Amino acid sequence: MTNEIEIDLKKYGGPVYTGRDKGQLIREKNDLDKIDQDSSTNVTILVPDNAFSLNSSFFLGVFGKSIRAAGSREKFLAKFKFKYPPHIEEYIDSGIERALLDRTNLLS
Question: Which has the closest alpha carbon to 82: 32, 48, 37?
Answer without folding.
Answer: 48
